[in-house]
Amino acid sequence: MAYWIQEFGGNGKNNSSYRLFYCETEADITDLPNLTDEGVQQGNDTVSNNPCPAGCEALALDTGDLYVLKKTTNMWEKIGG
């Protein structure tokens, strides 16, 4: 089990709290944080598991599927496919 993030800074275009998660497997999506709850901490990383805003994305590297955290459901939902 593993995931990590690519954070984007506040350059006027990107939301400074937006996160792109890279998950080794699709099963790791369930370990991610959502709008209100922390995710499963990965080793000594104390940032990736913090709650995150709607619109954050997660890429499952084993399947290539993209997930987006939806505001209306507070859940990671697969896009397309």
Report on the structure:
The protein is mainly β and 81 residues long. Helix content is 0%, strand content 28%. Strands 1-2-3-4-5 form a five-stranded mixed beta sheet, with no helix packed on it.
Output the keywords.
globular; 5-stranded mixed β-sheet; mainly beta; 28% strand
Q: Name the overall outline.
A: globular
Structural class: mainly beta
The side-by-side strand order for the widest beta sheet comes to: 1-2-3-4-5
Tally the helices. 0
**N-C termini distance:** 24 Å
> What is the count of β-strands?
5
Q: Please mark out the parts with pLDDT under 50 across 5 or more consecutive residues, or reply none.
A: none
Helix content: under 10%
SSE order, as H and E?
EEEEE
Strand content: 25-35%
Brief overview, please?
By secondary structure, this protein is mostly beta strands. Helices cover 0% and strands 28% of the residues.
Secondary structure elements and pairings:
Layout (H helix, E strand, L loop, with lengths): L2 E5 L11 E5 L33 E4 L5 E5 L4 E4 L3
Parallel strand pairs: 2-3
Antiparallel strand pairs: 1-2, 3-4, 4-5
